[in-house]
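Question: Now follow the chain.
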Amino acid sequence: MLENFSIDQALPLSISALLVNLLLGAISSYVLSQHYVRFGKTNSNRTELANVFPILILTTVLIITVVKSSLALSLGLVGALSIVRFRTPIKEPEELGYLLIAIALGLGFGADQRLPTLIAAAAIMGILIVLRNAPGLRKSAKHNLYLNVEVPQAQQQDGVLEKIHGILSTYTRLIDMRRVDQRDGLLQATYFINCQDSKALIGLMDTLQATVPNIAISCIEQKGVLGS
């Protein structure tokens, strides 16, 4: 039996199966692209990355279809990929996750595992939608903020920082003072805070402005800050 085996021997390819797999890959790439654009959380241009999914899925389908028919081609692919350097940076972990889903779809269709691949992909995207709309996750993602306040010298009455801290304690679930500066008559303080919802944040800002006249307030999301 071993006498008839050759590492160079390739199994015949089914063109019809390849076309079916490519069609399924094209459909699934469109669905995955729309899913990422609609439910993704990344700050970068999601449409730009979504346009890569069809290329990635269809190319993976073709590669797996070809190499699975020949051990020699499989070994050659390992050698070829070992000298390729992919230098495109992955900016956020979510981007890597969607790229892995695209590769998995290509691998599944290329290996003729159509039904398990479709079921698994539908389940994964469904779970992501549920997690994306989970109230607890949505609140924590939106309301971890850096709050910066500036108080001019004319309004720096005694205990102004204590008043600001007391107001923050009323409207937030977490307060962490990160920085305080006082120069040229201007008092600046930066806090990391967690608000329960947008209503609490609006109430916080209104109360600060009513308590400390001419105070300047700015907020920024945690993930929008360098180093966060």
Confidence is low (pLDDT under 50) at residues 224-228. The longest strand covers residues 172-183. The first helix runs from residue 15 to 39. The chain is about 55% helix and 15% strand.
